[in-house]
User: Fold this.
Amino acid sequence: MLLDLHTHSVASDDSRATVEQYVKWVNVLRRKGKSIDGFVLTEHRQFDHDVDYTSLASDDGIIILKGAELDTDTGHFLVYGISEEITDELDFSDVNMSAQNLVDICDTYGGIAIPAHPGRAGIGFAEYLDSGVTGFETIKSVERLNGSNRPGEGEKAESLIKAKGYLGTGGSDAHIVSAIGICMTSFDKEIKNESDLVQELRNGRFTAVRLES
Amino acid sequence: MKKNLYFEDVEIGDDIGPIKRSVTDEDVIEFVSVREKEITPSRFTSNEVANREGMPEAIVPGPMNIALMSQILTDWSDTVCLLKIDVVFRQTVPHNIDLTFSGIVTDKDETGDSTKLECDVVMENSDGVKLVIGTGVIALPNKP
Amino acid sequence: MTTDEGIVYDRSLLGVETQIGTFELTREMILGFAKSTGETNPRYLGDDNGAGDIVAPPTICNVFVSGVSRPDINLEFGEIGFFAGQSIECKAEIRPGDVLSASTKLDNVYVKTGRSGKMVFAVWETQFRNQDDVTVALVTESFVRRNKNR
Assistant:
């Protein structure tokens, strides 16, 4: 099963794509013979428990799940399986939040936090580890493939993965419609909801892939 | 530029462009001079000022980039009416580098209520790095 | 949503509409704008001699948007400012000789982090009307302040 684990809709300040347009584009990709089963909306610094894409998703047989991309003191993190407890414990809009605390809270309350684009300057996990930041023993995965990477950022992510033995996810980091699905994560098992997603990410049964040409 | 492109001719997923070009120092000076009779050195016209502001070289003004981005749509056909363009600058754009502008149709009103199309538009450098991204809304006439 | 907590600026300006000027758009300005941006469309350039009926390219308002002096929000952050993004909604054609008046208001201020570290964004909405009080363009602009690259 192929899911794009990193996408932004117009709820994020720097995205220009609506969720409905993403759904249409997934169907365009399918008509062109590409495989994509769904995507996770990871809006910047926010999470809305009330937004429900179930009907939109089921109309087209597309899985639409919700997560978030949070700014932290150790770079950006993708967060999946966000529960009321997690949003009660953390201020998602705090751009200086402790990444270690974020990881710990997610570990405690059924979520998972994964460093996004770890090879990116300024907001990538690798740079912080290089500068001597320690901890994060429970992190087992980072984002290996990111569709918005600049030259060198993917290579730095690969070096980190190799050095630490991490697993790697894939996501497009789409901010416009036609970018969705460029990078994705291939799961061995079917994912139907956020808790399935967290379970499979924790079990490590996935690989990062690029959209086949 | 295509002649007489009509709404019925276009499908979601259709490519627009690409257009390849670069923006020269002279282009930028000409652009800035539309507004300023006497040009004062700035990050747009002077490498020295750009260096002082932490940039490696002079950059193309944002409003000029938007004008260039809009052209990928208005140059598609003489029948295009641009209703909206909305762009995000992801990186500064230096003068005198190879730029590729491209677009793709991402949405089409199939209800018959309007002839609007939504398009993604992108400006990339020669490494494929997206310097400016955005969307445009255009209208095309119905076939006579 | 994003927050502006902890950012020091003049919050009294949020949502307050301010007139920022009246501008006459000459034929020469339109032709200069079109030429400098590499336009080839005769709709904006006229005939080979620049004569004939023309309209302004759809982003012409930027000639004025970038030059206006907006109210100072007294933002206490960052060493340098950049234009971060813009939306232009084209509501009516703009022609040579049109006199445009513009009003603007501060819509939002928020903070995020990126490749250059912490950044503060200020979003302005500007409306352009012509001499007949017809709205010709709605412009939303985002400006970012950050520290210089080291």
User: Anything to note?
Assistant: Chain A has a mean pLDDT of 96. Chain A is about 30% helix and 25% strand. The first strand of chain A starts at residue 2 and ends at 7. Chain A has one domain: 2-210.
